[in-house]
Amino acid sequence: ADLFDGIVMAEQRFHGEGYQEGYAEGSHAGMAEGRRYGALHGARIGSEIGCYLGFALTWHCLLQKSTDEKNSKKIRALDSLIGMIQKFPYEDPTYDKLQEDLEKIRGKFKQVCSMLNIQSDFRIGTERSSLTF
To answer: Essential protein Yae1 N-terminal domain spans which residues (predicted)?
Structure first.
């Protein structure tokens, strides 16, 4: 009877073993794909935020030399943008408000560009990111 049980139950046994092997291989492939996606997405966000910070610091330096009242409003807006960027949690991928804070930074950047009378267009391409005026 044991000989026939092995034959009859072979399909179920092979199904279970195949499932376990497939699950382990899929988990491994999913982790590798997730790491690649996370690194790429993180690099894009870092590039975008770095561009905003460089832009803000440059304009802050240019406007500091002037004592015009209009420039003081622009400087305050730039200070606000710089502060938001400096508080951004780069090292915490589990931060639950990451997208929300990123949208606030993007909004503030657009506001600053409007105040400076600059058309902004931030694109992330496959080769490089660019800010065009």
So the answer is: 18-56
